[in-house]
Structure formats: structure tokens, C-alpha cells
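Review form for a predicted model. The reviewer records the input and the model, then writes brief findings.
Reviewer: anonymous (R2)
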Amino acid sequence: MFIEVGHFALILALMVALVQSIVPLVGAQRGSAAMMAVAKPAALVQLGLIATAFAALLHAFITSDFSVVGVYQNSHTTKPLIYKISGLWGNHEGSLVLWVSILAIFGASVAAFGGNLPPALKARALAVQGMIAVGFIAFILFTSNPFLRVLPTPEDGMGLNPQLQDPGLAIHPPMLYIGYVGFSMAFSFAVAALIEGRVDAAWARWVRPWTLAAWTFLTMGIGLGSWWAYYTVGWGGYWFWDPVENASFIPWLTGTALLHSAIVVEKREALKSWTILLSIVTFSLSLLGTFLVRSGVLTSVHAFASDPTRGVFILALLGLAIGGSFTLYAIRAPRMQGGGLFAPISREGGLLINNLLLSTAAATVLLGTLYPLITEVLSANKISVGAPYFNSVFLPLFIPLIILLGIGPRLAWKRGDLKGALDRLKIAAGAAVAVFAVVLLIQGVRLADLGGAAGIAMAAWLATATISEWFERVRLNRPGAWARIGNLPRAAHGMTVAHLGMAVLIAGVSASQAWKQESIQTMTPGQSVNIAGYTMTFEGVKDVQGPNYFAAQATFIAAKDGETIATMQPELRMYDQPKQQITFTNVRTTFTSDLIAILGEPQGETAWVTRFYYEPLVPFIWYGVLLMAVGGFVSLSDRRHRVGAPKRATAATAMPLPEAAAAE
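Model under review:
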């Protein structure tokens, strides 16, 4: 019965979303306070109804109600509780319920805590949120109903894809979706601003915390997905430029550009039109990522849908959302006043170059992701675009971006002193040169090592420049430094931590790409293999029984300089429901490097295929992601985001409405 309550609640949520998308919008146009006031209760009621639908579906998964099609297809009685819960979003239908639930939370948050927003802007933004909700709730109800029953009720379920039965994958989708959906708020505010005809510093202040929250969670979601691929899939890698990986990385790039662009609008009221465009583009790319994964055009462990009807429906949603917003932008943006002027050499100029590099990088990744799909549609030929393309086009854009990250924060607003900024970066430049030389001395001066050494040097440049810039801000060598540290806005501290996280990540990526070692062979008990100074001795294989799988568990003794340092026990697992075999890697970390052991297929009675990987500095990738996320949360805690936005500019600075423009 509860499942029918959830279904009915979702139908009611669609009706409420329709009201939310129309009434406040009309009220804002007519200046009706009563109609605009409908937005707040509608958003809150919509959240309550969608939460009821989510709770009903979650209850069905937890209690193993196999009369529900989704539970039957994606759960099993022997599954641990955490994977019963994550089974809700481990399938197409349930993942979309999670999607609209997060959307409703964001809308209700603006409704509940947006008391400092102008009534008309708030009403329009919530109306746009309502339109998005209408599209996705309708998509769920008409093409992807999660509440369908199966009769007669099966005795047990078919189980969840074993590769998704992992703590990292249990947390990864919600994090990723908060990022995806969070950008809907920037989109809604952008569309509302275009309708209203006004973009100013106050608007940027309202948009920034929502964008920052979305960016932070998307960063964590991408990092968790990469971590899962690294230690679970067993390929010894953390990034494969897979189309589904790219689908989340592309909006991360444009979202990073949006964060920096919004700062310019808030500080100088410049780049207004560009910031509005980035708001639209970033959420549009999030929708495109949803289309790529949910339509079935991609074949991946992430791609749940295969019904072309769903793809057509999402494509129609994309056309309405993206086409409608870009049409509105084309009509309204040309009349948007540019705001404050600035010299090319200035903080604004640096942020603009930052935006151009990030946007170009996003475009190149998008092209490489979509090109095989376009080619297949036009010529029926299947081609693939792999890491060589992405590395060759992405790195030339990323290197100047890292250099600029060290220079930009030292430039003044409006007009900067480039020579003065470079003079203060002599220590950072010296650190980069010294690190480059030391790495080459340690690794050997070989062509293959130049890229890794250059990457570590870039990390040293950014880390030293970031830390020294923070020291200069607080004047650490002068009296009263602790007071200045406390008085410095938390957003400045957050920027420092995030940029430092990027430096740490670059070091991890560079070292692991340049000096990773692997060894693949067939071994029998008693045999040993050497890798990166470690001796791996194969002790044998034994059978173990898990909660919902049967496994062959190998034992390897890892020794270095004749001393045993670890006993590693990777597994080759066969899951019961569904019956699928996967590898379960064993990672031994020293917090500066990883040693990975993997058990492959048996070769006769006693021989087994084994794989070992040595990954130098790869843990720095996860430290870097964590630091960037911490930087995001520190910035979010900035007092300015809690006390509200500055007073809005006078109406004279707003864009003229079409009627007024015609009268002039």
C-alpha cells in the first residue's frame, strides 16, 4: 500500500510543480504579491510530496518488496543493507527519483532561506525550478515509473550489478547528483535575471553560494567515482576519459569558470552577460550528461537506460530547456549593460583568461565525447576517441591555466602591476625549477621522465605561489598576524585551500602517469615477482564465502629489502544474484604510493594469472580532491553568504524591457 502512496504523491508533486512554474511567473509579470507568494508554499509542498515518494521507494528496497519491479530487478534478500539502500539509485528509475528529490531540496531551500531575495526575482527563480521539476517528474511518470508492480510476486530478486556493490559507489551518485542538480539554481537565477532584465552585484552574491555548493559536491562526486574505478575495477587506473566520466567533468570545468566569473560580477559588475551564459551552459551540460547516461546511447556500467523512448523524451527536455534559455539569452543579453571597465592586466583580466581556458577545455572534451556518437549517426561507423586525443588537447590548455593561477591572485582589481606580481613570484619560480631538477636527478634524465618532472614542477609552482600569496595577505612576519588571519574572509582561506588542493592533485597525476609500473604474469605457489623494489611472493589460493558471493582468495607476501611489509589478499569473486564474476583488488598504501595486487583467471590446477601495480604519489590525487572540497566548504561558511547580499542597484541600471526599449 505504501508504494501506491508514493506513486500518488509523485503525481501530486507534478501538479504542484505545474502551479509553481506558472502562477509565480505570472504574478511577477503583473506585480501581484499574492501570486508571487505562491512560489514558497508550492516549493515546500513539492518537497514534501517528492520526499514521500522517495521514502516509499526506499522502504520497498529496505524491506525487499519484490512486488515492485525496480526492487525485483535490482535487489536480493542476501544483499547487505547498505547495498539494498544504494540499489534505489543503482538503476534508471530510482536514480531519477533521487534526481528530482535533490532538485526539490534546492528549490525548497531557496523558498525557506531566501528571505533577502527580491520577491519578483525569487518568484521567477522558483518558477523556473518548477519548470525543471515538471519535465523530470513527467519523464519519470510517463517513461520510467519506479512504482510498477510485478505479479505474481517473485520469491527473490535478481540482485544488483556486483560492480555497484561498493561503499564508494553507494555514496558517489548522490554526491554527483547534488552537483548536477545544484547548478539548476544558477540556471534558474540566470533565466529569472534575463526575464527581469537585471544583473548586478547583489544577483552575483545570491548565485555564488548555490554554485559553490554544487561545485563542491560535484568535485567530491567525481573524486569518489575515480577512487572507486581505481581500487575496484582492477585496471590500475583512476581515469579513462570514459564518456560517462566526461559527462560529469565537462560541467565541472564550466562550473569552475562560473564560480570565478561570478566573483567579477560581484566585485566589479563586469562580465554580466558572460556569467549569465556560463550559468545556462553549465546546467545545460548537466542535462546533457543526464541524456548521455540515461538515454542508452552510451554503453557503460553507469548507463542504466536502453529504451529509445526515454532518449527521445530527454532529448525533447534538452531542446526545451537549452533551446528556450538560449533563445531568451539571445533576445535579452545584447541590451545588458557591461558594468565596470578594467585593463587587460588586472584581476578581472586574469579571471577572464581563466574562464576562456576552462571553457575551451570543456569544449574540447565535449567534442571528443560527442564526435563518435555523431559519426555513428551520420555514417553508421563506430569509432572511438581515447586518451591520446584528450591528453593532447587538454594539457596545452591546462598548463597556462596553472601558471595563471599563481599570477592572478596577485593582480589588483581594475588595473594590475604584472611586473610587481612576477617579482613576488620569484620564490615560486625558483621552487619549480629546483623541484624539476631534483626530480630528474632522482629519476634520471630521460625523455620519458621530462613530462612527470614538469608536472611535479607545475605543482610546486602553484603550491608555493598559493601559500606565499596567503602569507602576503595576512603579513605573517608582522605583529598582529593572528588577528589578520581571523579577519580575512573565509572565502579567501577557502580559495587558498582549493588552489593548494589542485597543486596536490597535479603532483599525484603527474607522478602516477610518468612512473607507474605494472607486472602481469602467470604464477604458481612459491613463485616471486619483483616490482618497484618490492618482492611479491605467491602463497596460494583458498576458497572463502561472502554474504552474497563465493570467492577465490589469493595470498601474496610483499617484502622490501628482505623484510615483510604486508600480506595482501585480493579476490576473484562470483556473486550469486546476478551471477557475475569480478575482481576485488587489494591496495596497500604508504600514503605516498600504492602497491596493488590483483588475482586473475586460473591457468590449470595451481597456476593463476596475477597482476601487480605500483602507483607513485597516486594517493595525492585523493588528498587533492579532498582539499578542494574542504576549500569549497570553507568558502561556503563565509559570513557574507549567511548575512545576505548587498543592496541592489537602482532600477536605472536594469536592462530596459522590450516595451520600454521600443518607446525610446
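Findings: Residues 61 and 369 are 34 Å apart (CA to CA).
Further findings: The mean pLDDT is 88.
Recommendation: see findings above.
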